[in-house]
Amino acid sequence: MAFLSLLFMSSCFLTLSGLTFGDQSGKPVIVKEGDYAILPCSLGTNENIEFMRFEWKKEGTEEEVYIYDNGVGYSPALPGRVSHFRDDLKHGNASIRINNVQLEDKGNYTCNFPNRGKTFRIKLVVEPILKVRNVSGAAELYVTSHDQINGGVLLQCDVKNAHPKPTVEWQDSNNEIIPSEEPQVSKQGDRFYITLKATVKKSGRYRCVAKQEEINHQAQKEIYVYIYEKSDSATQGFPVWAAILIGVLVVVIVVGVVLKVKGYCLKKGRPPHRESFHL
């Protein structure tokens, strides 16, 4: 009997402390930055809450993340990014969906039913991704290509004004890292300046990628190079317009020669002109 009482009290405690619909383990919701997150919440009674008020808040903030009241839902804190599951309200589902989750969305959330005096809690964890960020110390990239050398093209990537120090690499169109020279690194104050060179021998698109995982920043610049193949050697350095002009001249000369020969033959085929001599 004592065991059953303890089990009942534990169940009540878990319900009131925020273990929510769809997740009875208390584990946080974990998503990657830019994805969507579903924060679960339910009274657990499967009753219709279409005409009941519930509120979502993030701990440490003043504005409500989402408010649903008598058929109307809206988000003061995240307008346009939060919605509820309208068809599931009749089953007691007060869960919300947050679209395009950002790093600043992480934290502890509460789902509150003010008319019932019940509050549920759930933690949202947002895992950062590497992307272009407008933050201080974000690496700035500049890429150039140099004249063809020994059948290849020299690519140069200059990374400027970076802090912390980034990792820099050249990649091909298949996202494969290509061999590069030893990077040239210099430092001015706390900012890093890096030059990375690589020689490529195939035409295609190449990109220089700089990663700064400490600030979740990744920048890249792409360049297209064309390398003359052996089959191009006959026309290498020979303008197309010159080839066309030569072709036209050849045709004109051939036509002129043909006409001249034809005229000569016609002239030879006429009876010779005889002059009369009188004695």
UniProtKB/TrEMBL annotation:
Keyword Signal listed? The answer is: yes
Instruction: Kindly list the places in or outside the cell where this protein is found, as annotated in its UniProt entry.
Output: Membrane
TM regions (residue ranges): 238-259
Give all residue intervals belonging to the Ig-like domain.
31-111, 128-224
Recall the GO molecular function terms of this protein's record: signaling receptor binding
User: What are the BP-aspect GO terms?
Assistant: regulation of cytokine production; T cell receptor signaling pathway
GO cellular component terms given for this protein: external side of plasma membrane
Q: Main localization of the protein? A: membrane
Write the signal peptide boundaries.
1-22
Q: Does the keyword Cell membrane apply?
A: no
Keywords attached to this Swiss-Prot or TrEMBL record, sorted alphabetically, are: Immunoglobulin domain, Membrane, Signal, Transmembrane, Transmembrane helix
Q: Kindly provide the name given to this protein in its UniProt entry.
A: Ig-like domain-containing protein
Record organism: Oreochromis niloticus
